[in-house]
Amino acid sequence: MMQKPQSEWAKSMTFKEQLKVIKRLFVYAKPFRNTFIVAILFAMALATINAFLPRILQTLIDRYLTNQTATVQIILFFAMLYLLGTILKAVIWFFQWYLYSSASLRSYQNIRVKLFEKLHTLGMRYFDQTPAGSIVSRVSNDTETLFEFWHVFLTVLTGILAVISSFVAMFQINQQIATGILFFLPILGFVIWYYQRFSSRVYRQMREKLSQLNTKLNESISGMQIIQQFRQEKRFVKEFEKTNDEYLATRYAMIKMNSLLLGPIISLLYTFALGFALTAFGINALSSPVEVGLIYAFATYVQAFFNPMT
């Protein structure tokens, strides 16, 4: 009799186990490391350009527009400079995304081939105890999450670069206010930790239900003749609907968590940080003039500081 296997998604992993899995993933990505490195260099260049663009508008506003010394030639020069920076940003983003996606896709395909080869070395006992649908889910759907991992890794990396470049730019404008913005990081860290703690549990449940869904679908298709002979269609439909509803519930839980927890809280913290910065500049303006372009650039950097975390 076939035993119902415990899904790998049903149990959580310790931090050491997660690090062990990540190290193994990097081993599979090693043949494509040069492509990954070039993509990361493009990401660093992109962060630099994002920090440079607000400075262009700041210079135009403070040196020319505020003093009413701007000419058509000067405005066109800054407009072309900003346009060239934006075009360069788009080109770099394209090559970064293309190179990184192609490398991660080849790494993911390599893992899938290795996994398929591993299946041919397993004994018949494994196939007797494991439903075919569960095996298919592990080879196809579960390996798909590895491809998603590389995109999450890129998102985290570009987010870190954006936070660092934004803070450096703010620090160059005003050290005291930038240091005050930095105090929001511990709160952000706690929010992200709290979100990850509960979202990972819901995500594991979602993947487990998807595996069960594929298992039931495969069993129904492969055994359709027997099901029809014994008139068990209604029972199998009810079982499939139950599993499908459970999977839908986990998807809804993930949507609610994303819409109610992480995004709104980070947006609220961004509003507080921006309000703090504007208040600080307002207090400084009571004793000495504060340039409009400087406030614009600082506000843009505050937005870029929080944007990767939403």
Ordered list of secondary-structure elements with their pairings:
Layout: H1 15-29, H2 33-65, H3 72-119, H4 124-129, H5 132-173, H6 175-182, H7 185-222, H8 224-229, H9 233-285, H10 292-306
For the structure shown, list the relevant keywords:
ABC transporter transmembrane region fold; mainly alpha; 310 residues; 10 helices
The average pLDDT is 88
CATH superfamily: ABC transporter type 1, transmembrane domain
Count of individual helical segments: 10
* Straight-line N-to-C gap: 49 Å
Low-confidence stretches: none
Regarding quaternary structure, what we see is: single chain
Question: Can you characterise this structure?
Answer:
Helix content is 85%, strand content 0%. The chain starts with 14 loop residues before the first helix and ends with a helix. The model has no long low-confidence stretch (mean pLDDT 88). α6 (175-182) runs antiparallel to α9 and α7 packs antiparallel against α9. It is elongated and about 90 Å long. The chain is built from 10 helices and no strands. The chain has 310 residues and is an all-alpha fold. It has a single domain (16-309), classed as ABC transporter transmembrane region fold (Up-down Bundle), CATH 1.20.1560. The chain crosses the membrane at residues 75-100, 149-171, 177-195, 260-283, 289-306. One of its GO terms (cellular component) is plasma membrane.
Short summary of the structure?
The chain has about 300 residues and is mostly helical.
